[in-house]
Write a structure and sequence with these properties.
The complex is a heterodimer of chains A (68) and B (174). Chain A is mainly alpha-helical and 68 residues long. Chain A has 5 helices and 2 strands, in the order βαααααβ. Chain A has one domain: 434 Repressor (Amino-terminal Domain) (Orthogonal Bundle). Classes of the chains: A mainly alpha (68), B mainly alpha (174). At the A-B interface, α3 of A face loops of B.
Chain lengths: 68, 174
C-alpha cells in the first residue's frame, strides 16, 4: 500500500515500546502491531487522536504517502 | 449471542436432523418400491388397476421406474441441501460471514434449480399415466415457492459475499 505508517520511527524517537503505547492509549497490542506492520486497511480518527496525543505528533508525522 | 437466537439455532439444527431422517425414510421407500416393481409386477399391476388412479395400469411399469429414479435424484439433492444448511448453521453461532458460507448458499441455490428441473419430468410422467383428477397427477411441475426459494438463496449468497467483504474491512480497521 502507498500509505506508510511510521509508528516505529515515532516510538524510537520517544524511546517507547509498542507495549508501553498500548498500555497508555488502551488499544490492544495486536491492533497496534497490525498498524505498525502496515497490515491495517483503515484507521479510526479516535486511534489517530490517541496516538498523536500520546506521542505529541501530528497525523502527518505518523502517516506518509509513498507511491508504489 | 442472545438466548432467543441460540434457541432458534438449536431448533433449526433439530429440524434439519429430522429432515435428514425423513429423507432417509423416503429413500428407503424408493428402494423398496423399486424392488417391488422389479419382482412383484403382476400383483402391483392388479392393485394399480383396482385403485382407478392410472389410465392404463397394465403398461405403466417403465414410467413408474422413471418416477422412482427422478424421486431418488430429488432426494439426493435434498440431502445435499440439508448438509450445506447444517454446515451453514454450524458457523452461525460464531462467525457466519466467511467466504465458504456465500459459496454454500450459491450451491444450495443451484441444487434448488436442479430440484425444480427434476420436478418438470416428474410432473409430465405422472400426468401421462394418472387420471387427471387424482392427486398422483398433481405431482411435480413448476412451483412458485421453489422459484422464490431459488431467488432467495442466490440473493442471500450475494448478501453474504458483501457481508464477508465488509467484515474483512472492519477487521483490518485499527
Amino acid at each position: 500500500m502507498a500509505i506508510v505508517v511510521k509508528l516505529d520511527d515515532l516510538l524510537h524517537a520517544k524511546r517507547m515500546t509498542l507495549t508501553d503505547l498500548s498500555d497508555r492509549i488502551g488499544i490492544t497490542l495486536a491492533n497496534l502491531s497490525i498498524l505498525k506492520t502496515g497490515k491495517a486497511k483503515a484507521m479510526r480518527f479516535s486511534t489517530l487522536e490517541a496516538i498523536c496525543t500520546e506521542l505529541g505528533c501530528q497525523p502527518g508525522d505518523l502517516l506518509a504517502f509513498e507511491p508504489d | 449471542m442472545s438466548k432467543n437466537h441460540s434457541t432458534l439455532l438449536a431448533v433449526t439444527r433439530g429440524l434439519l436432523w429430522l429432515m435428514l431422517t425423513l429423507i432417509a425414510a423416503a429413500f428407503l421407500f424408493v428402494i423398496v418400491s423399486g424392488g417391488a416393481l422389479a419382482v412383484m409386477w403382476p400383483e402391483i399391476a392388479v392393485e394399480a388397476k383396482n385403485s382407478q388412479i392410472f389410465l392404463d395400469a397394465g403398461n405403466i411399469r417403465p414410467q413408474l421406474f422413471a418416477l422412482l429414479a427422478i424421486l431418488a435424484a430429488v432426494l439426493a439433492a435434498a440431502v445435499y441441501i440439508v448438509r450445506k444448511l447444517q454446515a451453514l448453521i454450524a458457523t452461525a453461532a460464531t462467525d457466519p460471514f466467511i467466504p465458504a458460507n456465500a459459496a454454500r448458499l450459491r450451491h444450495i441455490g443451484w441444487a434448488l434449480v436442479a430440484v425444480q428441473l427434476l420436478a418438470l419430468p416428474l410432473g409430465s410422467v405422472a400426468r401421462s399415466i394418472a387420471v387427471s383428477t387424482s392427486q398422483f397427477a398433481d405431482m411435480g411441475g413448476i412451483n412458485l415457492q421453489s422459484i422464490l426459494a431459488i431467488l432467495l438463496a442466490f440473493v442471500l449468497a450475494a448478501v453474504f459475499e458483501r457481508g464477508t467483504a465488509m467484515r474483512d474491512e472492519l477487521e483490518g480497521t485499527v
